[in-house]
Amino acid sequence: EEQDRLLRHQPDQPQNPKVLRIAIIGAPNAGKSTLSNQLLGRKVFPVSQKVHTTRCKARGVVTYEDTQLIILDTPGLTSPFKAKRHKLDEAMLTDPWDSVKHADLVLVLVDVSDHWTRNCLSKEVLKCLSRFPQIPSVLVLNKVDLLKKKFILLELITELTEGIVNGKKLEVRSAFKHNSSSSAKSPLQITQAFPPENSAHEPRCLQETGQAQEGSSLDSNGDMRASESSLVTEEAQGPKRCGPRDLKNMKGWPCFQEIFMLAALRGEEVDTLKRYLLMQAKPGPWEFHSGVLTSQSPQEICDNIIREKILEYLPLEVPYGVIQVTEMWEEGPSGELLIMQNLVVPRKSHMMMLIGKGGKVISRIAQEAGQDLMNVFLCDVHLKLKVEVKS
């Protein structure tokens, strides 16, 4: 009732409100929901190792002083063929595009730990960026903590940006060939995060502010060696503004304004990105009350968290066929939340897998989902799950 009231009523407004709508797009399982949860400071979006955990667009709300960030967590951009294979709703194809259309800024997330996909942006992502070239975009390299050889990041940046960032040509040079007279008229920031074993090296920003400076870089062993190579910028050839392009031979997008490197799961460098987003907000009225964390209803959050656990514990395509039906949602005598949900599966074999030997799988799902719901709702939650075969 409280959530419904906050969503229905006019939002409170500070004296000089600012707002920024952010669409997070990328390939399935790049870490979009994990990043969204870290920005929000609480887990409200489902996360699992399987693709297509997020099934529809959902909004998260970060309110800080006079600024409101509206985070549009979207399904992974996918092709019609893959959508059919995973029995996905049409919304899975249209929602990411709809989110970008209404965004003030686009974050393109790339999983750098996936060596099969990290060297180029997917065709779906490139299509989306090309369709809305007027909307500023930022490249976010995620899961950098899983990379043993950090020099790979320099190669990825060059490929994913086509060597151009914020209208400036980006180059990786040997320090011995460094040309200190090279100039760049606007700053290029690259935020770098490293795993704990390199924690002695503080994450740095590389900035070009009028004269090319020698920046931090990485050698083949993963250590930073400022003396060996550096990233510098030069004036890019051709127009700065990007328009629709021929995507056939494109691997990257030459119109990113900034590049960030982080590890969303560990929360490394997420605050740096958050500060940047707050600085990008423009004057405008808040869309949500300052007490709102997400546009989802409590029931939707509950469904998503339970489905996350089902995806985690069932093999292959099995979890995508589970239908969730909430049969009870009540407040108990001591203020606890009583939830009973029926999980309907298409085959008896799926039911046996979901229940598990001695009921171990379904018990584990209920226990872990119940704990997550307690963390979200900040109250005791008693969750019961039943399984039945679709009649």
From TrEMBL:
Family that this chain belongs to: Belongs to the TRAFAC class TrmE-Era-EngA-EngB-Septin-like GTPase superfamily. Era GTPase family.
Pfam families: KH_2 (PF07650), MMR_HSR1 (PF01926)
Region of interest: G1: 26-33
Domain Era-type G intervals: 18-284
Region annotation G4: where it falls in the sequence: 142-145
Membrane topology: Peripheral membrane protein
GO molecular function: GTP binding; ribosomal small subunit binding; rRNA binding
Region described as G5: spans on this chain: 262-264
Protein's UniProt name: GTPase Era, mitochondrial
Purpose: Probable GTPase that plays a role in the mitochondrial ribosomal small subunit assembly. Specifically binds the 12S mitochondrial rRNA (12S mt-rRNA) to a 33 nucleotide section delineating the 3' terminal stem-loop region. May act as a chaperone that protects the 12S mt-rRNA on the 28S mitoribosomal subunit during ribosomal small subunit assembly.
Composition-biased stretches (Polar residues): 209-220
Keyword rRNA-binding: yes
UniProt entry tagged with the keyword RNA-binding: yes
Region (G3): 73-76
Species whose genome carries this gene: Eudyptes sclateri (Erect-crested penguin)
Protein keywords: GTP-binding, Membrane, Mitochondrion, Mitochondrion inner membrane, Nucleotide-binding, Ribosome biogenesis, RNA-binding, rRNA-binding, Transit peptide
Cellular component terms (Gene Ontology): mitochondrial inner membrane; mitochondrial matrix
GO biological process: ribosomal small subunit assembly
